[in-house]
Amino acid sequence: MSNISTLVKSIQDIMRKDAGTYGDAQRLEQMAWLLFLKIFDDHEFGLESMNNHYQSPLPEQLRWRNWAANIAGITGERLLTFVENKLLPELRQLTGADPMVKLIRDTFADANNYMKNGTLLRQVINKILGINFNNSVDRHLFGDIYEKLLKDLQSAGNAGEFYTPRAVTQFIVEQVNPRLSETVFDPACGTGGFLICALEHLRQQAKEGDDERTIQNSIFGIEKKHLPYVLCITNLLLHQVEVPARIKHDNTLARPLTDWKINEQVDVIVTNPPFGGMEEDGIGSNFPADFRTRETADLFLVLLMRILKQQGRAGIVLPDGTLFGEGVKTRIKEALLTECNLHTIVRLPNGVFNPYTGIRTNLLFFTKGSPTTEVWYYEHQYPPGVKSYNKTNPIRIEEFAAVQAWWGNEADGFATRVENECAWRVSFETIKAGNFNLDLKNPHQVDSSVNTVEQLLPEYERLLAHIAETRAAVQTELQQALLATGEEK
Questions:
Q1: 343: phi then psi, degrees, rounded to nearest 5
Q2: Whole-angstrom Cα Rg for the chain
Q3: Quick one: 269 and 385 in the same domain?
Q4: Per-residue model confidence as pLDDT tens digits over 105-122
């Protein structure tokens, strides 16, 4: 198909006519499970061509080819009745020993049919029939459109957390450099951006026939929210993962930290945990008393230190608030620098996650097992002529060429690294003396006496975040003091 972009837009236009799909989130969720069934059906055609004895985990009447694939098939009220009373309920209750059964059941656990007009639903299905996911051209083009759909979530309220810019995921994976036979984990995997990048990175190293099986068995992820979980599974199927059963629909933080056993530890973690959000009451109690907080990003940082193997490597996206925060944040950072070698912090400029947040972010890279002696900082610069990133002008992987050339090798202690206008280093002793504040400015940049709005806004946001953090810390201390007073009485 020559113009999949037009086709996807036409699907969205049909859905806009339906009273049930009144927002971007509903339209995307509806499209997600329909696309999953079509992609899985094409996936099964491929498996059948290689194995005459292949058995589908789906009952025949629920397979896409048997209810959707006929353009003149069921429509109107009859189609709505089938979808709402048979298809979705039975997919939610699917049974069987095939590992794909649980994956499909989880995929449809919270799936909804938002469309109220069966004729419009048939029109959407007929449009989807026009894509052949076994055709490499269609699959590649649709992968690009799929990424565009994920970006569109940025305008769908708080759903923007689902998408991390491709350039950021690719850079982190390339610098952490997962290798064949290593396990790769994303505990907040969203739609699978980091896992897809890791998959592609590992496939470049494959030399033998069994390597692909090893690679597929080495990718793990957990996602709390249903919609990004479905998109992640679909994304992995699009990238020829035969059974993405190692992706779980769960809240990683809901599991007590002490429950994670040594045999569950992983070699590599690459992730962008939700930041700015608060976990529900009780989640903090799964963590040691010194690290208890409701701040999601902070809890994930504690989790990473627990589930990395000795000499395991991590790359994580964190907001400025974690770097300069005090109280619990200070204790977490102290643990990070004493238990791990936090060798590099790449400071990203404002706007990387526009339009849904202008919060400045940082990429932290560390290895577990030896303490930090010094932290290298690298301040990523806007390319010439760019004052901020946005939806139409996102950060690009080519912009990381300078930091990649500077990076060096951890095995020799990054001996080739040199300070320059973008790079500087700070000793552990200096950081400790500053109460583990990691929000350190570039000493090679001279402050201008005249500041633009673009320059002042990040500092203003940093101050607001600091105020919020201080307020939360005071509230926590007051609550603890009140509880202690009550216990004494």
A1: -85, -25
A2: 24
A3: yes
A4: 999 998 999 999 999 999
